Every structure is written in C-alpha cells, then in structure tokens.
Amino acid sequence: MQDLPDSTTDRDDGHAVVRVLSYNVRSMRDDVAALARVIRACRPDIVCVQEAPRFFRWRKAAARLARTSGLVYVSGGATASGPMILASLRAHVERTEDILLPRTPGLHQRGFSTAVLRFGRARLGVLSCHLSIDDQERYTQGELLLERLSALGEPHAVVGGDFNDRPDGRTFGLLSDALQDGWATRPWGREHTTRLGDPLQRIDAVFATPEVEVLGCGVPMGLPGVREQDLRAATDHLPVLAAVRVPAAY
After folding, report:
1. FRET partner for 171 with CA separation of 20 to 30 A, picked from 19, 89, 139, 205?
2. Is 81 inside a domain boundary?
3. What are the CA-CA distances from residue 62 to residues 38, 73, 137, 249 (Å)?
4. How far is CA 211 from CA 47, 86, 150, 180, in A?
5. Whole-model pTM?
6. Residue 5 covered by a domain
7. Per-10-residue mean pLDDT for the chain, 250 residues long?
8. What residue stretches are annotated with the Endonuclease/exonuclease/phosphatase domain (predicted)?
9. Looking at residue 127, which CATH number applies to its domain?
C-alpha cells in the first residue's frame, strides 16, 4: 500500500503538509495499547477523537492516550461531551474552544472540540465532532458545525468526525456541499469505516474547506505498522487518515 505524503513545511512558500486522523475510540474501553499502536503507525499531526472518556478521571485517561500515542492533549473530552483534539509537537496551539450543543430531551449531549493550530506559517482550523443518531437533531448539528467552522475565522480548516450518517444522507450531503469530503476528493486506502465484519458503511470522515488541498484520505488498512489485529482490538470504528496541504497565512 502506498503511503500518504509525510508531514512537511516548505521554507519557500510556507505551505505545510499535515496528516489528520479521525478516530472514534469508544471511551477507551477496549485495548488501549492497540489503539495507541494504530495512532502511532499513522504518524498524525492532528487526531480528531470521538467518544473520548467523559466521566471519572477523564483527564487522566486523555493524558494517557496522548502520551502512549506520542502526542499532546489540545482540547475537548468531557468539556465537549466526547470530541477531543490531540496533536504532535509540530503544532503550535493558537487557541481552543469547546462547545456544548443544544440537547434534545432523551438524547445524548453532543458538542464540538475546536482549535486553531499553526504549522510554520500555515494556520489550520480544526473541529472534532460526533453527531446525533437522530436525523433531525443531526441535521441541525450539521448546520451548527458549518456556523462554528465559519466563526473560527480561518479560511483553511478540517473537520474530523463520526457523523452517524452515510454519504447519501442529508446531513452528510449538507456538509459535502459546503466542504470537501476527503474520500470523495482523493480516495486512498479503504473506504468503509465500520468495524471489520460489520455491515459496510462510511459514517466517519475528514472534511476540508475548499482552499485546502486534499492529497489523500481513507482508512489506513495495509499501511505499514497498522495491523488488522490492532484495528479489531482497539475500538469498534476504523480510523480515517488524510494528508492535506495547507497554504501559508500571510
């Protein structure tokens, strides 16, 4: 399997190649060592986590995942009701904000974890999300996602998430009308993100604003160091890995 482009920063024009991983970790209830091995093998600059630990000693669990994955905690977790952002030391954190979304009675609280990260002269907005299982609430959250992404004030941004919707769904369609769907733009690796052996669905994705160049995006099955045994043991979702080129901010 051909790898995605490695993380780089061009000293001449200032653009940066950034590797973005989106991963639903099911509250780290499974094999955390296997989870960390998968993340490390993907060599991400940014990890948009969904279902991060939210309850007892959640900060300790988040720190453990960051440490064992060779990353640092940026934002989210319980403060965003599950979404979280981790990053490599290559990223300079400019600002963060966690948002709790309006809640429908009887359904789970949802939220967004957001950050603005700088890689040399390239600045990138990041949003991690896990949308509702309810169609109407999910669509409303999709609208709020686009509003929040615009409020970051960054022309270059990525969204990583578990959208609980397929590409033919109306919320997925809302997002792909406004943003680039990484897999549809530059497919790489495996498409479907449900657990191996489950019905084939693509409900996890990485999106990017139009000015970001998507170099490749998909599930890193077959990537050196990413073992099927670890993917099965780590959690009930498969990760989505994207490489994007971000122009310099002047």
Report:
1. 19
2. yes
3. 16, 7, 28, 31
4. 21, 23, 13, 9
5. 0.97
6. no
7. 86 90 96 97 98 92 96 97 98 98 94 98 98 98 98 97 98 98 97 90 98 98 95 97 93
8. 21-237
9. 3.60.10.10
